[in-house]
Specification:
This protein has helices at 5-18, 53-57, 148-171, 174-200, 214-217, 220-227, 235-260, 266-281, and strands spanning 22-28, 44-50, 69-73, 89-95, 100-107, 120-125. The chain is an alpha+beta fold. It folds into 2 domains: 5-140, Beta Polymerase, domain 2 (2-Layer Sandwich), CATH 3.30.460; 143-281, Up-down Bundle (Four Helix Bundle (Hemerythrin (Met), subunit A)). The longest helix has 27 residues, at 174-200. It is elongated, with a radius of gyration of 24 Å. 26% of the residues are buried.
Length: 290
């Protein structure tokens, strides 16, 4: 039976209250956000301010007191991605009952260097160490307007990498092409979409991690076009996704350039788009590109 939010909070606080090494408890993330949709998949993002991180680290079994574990990750013990090495230590825990706990131990000795997330609620402070927390807000998660440099770099990287996607597709190197399309080109597209939505919403709406709330804010026509940028494993569909991505990118980038008085790279767009169409129709027996 999945424990309720009240039961999980009680377990988290009881653990802290019974252990003298734990001096404060902070709740971060979506459960601290009054605007976040509520569902059973929400993590419990918890920070324990502790007197001695290493004593917990030496005894990994203590984390099992929170419940039966399905899978556990300790990022500070991993090589990829590299650990933060800021004195903290995290336990990312998926429990068998469906709950998930992202628990960070933060040393009290480094309290003055800890970033205070705008989505934070102070649940416990045994010693009055922390200044009162303001009401949680999405301030730290709102989009920022582009600078001319960031906009230009985004456009350049997007159109540059599209030529590599086309090369991979013509060579029938699907994994290579899809990595470039789905990881690198899409990252630039999502950046442009974030600026687009930020401009439409006056930078007052949080799009969530990895743009998970984009559907709420994109115009229906642009949302449908974004859906068309996701392809199955067939080459024809992947070509279509590439062309859809290019179309969507220019549709949002050009008005943004006009809005912010930036220079849109019409030349790059035109030359690369023509090149993509050319490579798409290039026979497999070709010995030259042009």
């Amino acid at each position: 039976m999945m424990r309720s939010e009240r039961e999980m909070r009680s377990t988290i606080l009881e653990m802290a209250e019974s252990d003298d090494r734990i001096r404060s408890v902070i709740l971060n993330g979506s459960r601290a956000n009054p605007h976040a949709p509520r569902d059973p998949f929400q993590d419990f993002d918890i920070v324990y301010i502790v007197t001695d991180v290493e004593s917990f680290r030496r005894n990994p079994e203590w984390i099992r007191r929170f419940g039966e574990i399905m899978i556990l990750q300790t990022p500070e013990e991993m090589h990829s991605p590299p650990p933060a090495k800021d004195g903290s230590y995290a336990y990312l825990v998926q429990f068998m009952d469906g709950n998930r706990l992202d628990l960070t131990l933060y040393p009290i000795s480094r309290l003055d260097t800890m970033h205070r997330d705008s989505l934070s609620i102070l649940l416990l402070d045994k010693d009055g160490l922390l200044e009162p927390f303001p009401p949680p807000s999405e301030r730290d998660y709102l989009p920022e307007p582009p600078t001319a440099k960031k906009f230009a770099d985004c456009c350049n990287e997007f159109w540059w990498i599209c030529t590599y996607v086309a090369k991979g597709l013509w060579r029938e190197e699907l994994v290579y092409a899809r990595h470039l399309l789905d990881q690198i080109a899409r990252t630039q597209l999502e950046k442009m979409l974030t600026w687009h939505v930020g401009e439409r919403t006056r930078l007052q709406e949080n799009l969530g991690s990895y743009g998970k709330y984009l559907e709420w804010y994109l115009e229906p026509e642009l949302w449908e076009l974004l859906l068309n940028t996701y392809a199955d494993a067939r080459y024809g569909k992947t070509w279509a996704a590439l062309f859809a991505m290019c179309d969507l990118f220019r549709r949002v980038a050009r008005p943004l350039a006009e809005k912010y008085c930036f220079e849109y790279p019409f030349g790059d767009d035109g030359r690369v788009s023509a090149h993509l169409r050319h490579v798409h129709s290039l026979p497999k027996t070709a010995k030259r590109i042009y």
